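Translate structure to sequence.
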């Protein structure tokens, strides 16, 4: 196996990965913003990423929301508009097809993304570590409501901050902002699945955000095969069994259409 990966020479790697897939039972796809990039949704930390233009502490932190909810909502409304117009790409679809073909074996997507594109592609087993952009949460009474890309803007107007129908307080996008904890049930399940998997695909994540970026270590403790799909080197490339320096839609179609 190629620890750290062989740049530009992925044909041999793909053949080996396909063999490993045939012999394995439990799969986890751990995904980040890069998987949705070709759907037109910018990542955070690439050269054209959102955090190169905006300050996350002013737009996506708990403190920012409490001090200026209108500014935070303006930012999220613009992202919701973008995601409404986006379509899932070949990477989301390849994972969904794989999930269908492996029958009794276990296959889960654990995503840091808030765009719901895995669900739109048809994936059934999706754990959202950071919530999603079409959910709203009342910060006072805790009431939650879930919408989707088809109906979100039928219910909310970009002119106003949404208000809770139960207690009249302001609603927050039901995503995990900086300074907030991950949802405990989802996190527990993600750790368990990672600790039990035989193969973990780590796709389109810079692996900069903690604690999500500890999941590959849980998989490693189970001696899982770690397969990174990312055009760029990441914080954890050195622990990977394979690093395929390719765009996710391109390489995932190659791996799974042949399995
Ligand atoms: P990140 O911006 O830190 O890293 C993105 C990674 O994707 C980079 O390593 C980059 O090299 C890689 N990449 C770029 N294009 C790619 C492609 N075509 N194929 C494969 N990989 C590609 O994003 P992250 O690691 O997911 O950071 C975590 C945070 O980002 C989470 O909090 C998440 O909620 C948030 N986020 C989500 C979305 C979304 O829902 N689509 C978008 C932006 C950020």
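Result:
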């Amino acid at each position: 196996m190629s620890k750290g990966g062989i740049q530009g020479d992925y044909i041999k790697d793909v053949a080996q990965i396909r063999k490993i897939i045939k012999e394995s039972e439990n799969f986890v796809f751990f995904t980040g913003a890069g998987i949705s990039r070709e759907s037109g949704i910018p990542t955070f930390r690439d050269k054209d990423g959102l955090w190169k233009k905006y300050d996350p502490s002013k737009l996506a932190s708990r403190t920012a929301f409490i001090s200026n909810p209108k500014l935070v909502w303006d930012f999220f409304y613009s992202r919701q508009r973008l995601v409404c117009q986006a379509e899932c790409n070949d990477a989301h679809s390849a994972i969904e097809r794989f999930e269908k073909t492996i029958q009794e074996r276990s296959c889960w997507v654990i995503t840091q993304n808030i765009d719901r594109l895995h669900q739109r592609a048809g994936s059934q087993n999706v754990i959202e570590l950071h919530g999603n952009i079409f959910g709203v949460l009342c910060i006072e009474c805790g009431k939650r409501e879930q919408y989707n890309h088809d109906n979100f803007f039928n219910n909310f107007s970009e002119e106003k901050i949404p208000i809770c129908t139960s207690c009249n307080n302001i609603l927050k996008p039901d995503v995990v902002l900086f300074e907030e904890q991950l949802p405990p049930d989802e996190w527990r399940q993600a750790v368990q699945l990672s600790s039990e998997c035989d193969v973990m695909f780590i796709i389109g994540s810079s692996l900069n955000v903690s604690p999500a970026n500890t999941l590959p270590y849980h998989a490693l403790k189970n001696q899982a095969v770690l397969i990174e799909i990312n055009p760029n080197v990441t914080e954890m490339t050195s622990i990977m069994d394979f690093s395929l320096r390719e765009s996710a839609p391109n390489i995932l179609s190659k791996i799974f259409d042949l399995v």
